[in-house]
Amino acid sequence: MPDTTAEVRQRIRELLEGVFGGPSFVARLQDTVSLREAGVPSTALVALLVVMEDAFGFEWQDDVRPEVLRSIDSLARHVVAQRG
C-alpha cells in the first residue's frame, strides 16, 4: 500500500485512468489542477472516490471538506492524513 504523498498521487492517477478508460486525459492533468476545471464530471469523481476507498482501505466521511476533493494533490494529502 502506498505510504508517501507522491506514491499516493501516482496510485490516484492510476485509479483515475481506470475511471476514464485510459491514460490520455490523466497524462495531461497536473496534480494541483482542479479536477472540475480540468473537465472531470461529477459522476467520474464519485467513481474515483469509490475506487479510492477500496484501494486505500478507508471510507469517505459525509462531512469531508470540498477542498479535499479539489485535485489529485489534495486527495493524496487526505489519504496520507487518514493513515497518520
What distinguishing features does this structure have?
single chain, 84 residues, mainly alpha, Non-ribosomal Peptide Synthetase Peptidyl Carrier Protein, Chain A, 5 helices, globular
Could you walk me through the main structural features you see in this protein, from its secondary elements to its overall organization?
The chain is an all-alpha fold and 84 residues long. The chain has a single domain, classed as Non-ribosomal Peptide Synthetase Peptidyl Carrier Protein, Chain A (Orthogonal Bundle). It has helices at residues 5-20, 23-28, 35-38, 42-56, 72-83. Helix 1 crosses helix 4 (42-56) and helix 1 packs across helix 5. The mean pLDDT is 93.
Average of per-residue pLDDT values? 93
* Name of the CATH architecture: Orthogonal Bundle
Report the end-to-end length measured between terminal Cα atoms.
14 Å
Number of strands: 0
Strand and helix layout:
Elements: H1 5-20, H2 23-28, H3 35-38, H4 42-56, H5 72-83
Helix pairs in contact: 1-4, 1-5
Short description:
With 84 residues, this protein is mostly helical. Helix content is 63%, strand content 0%.
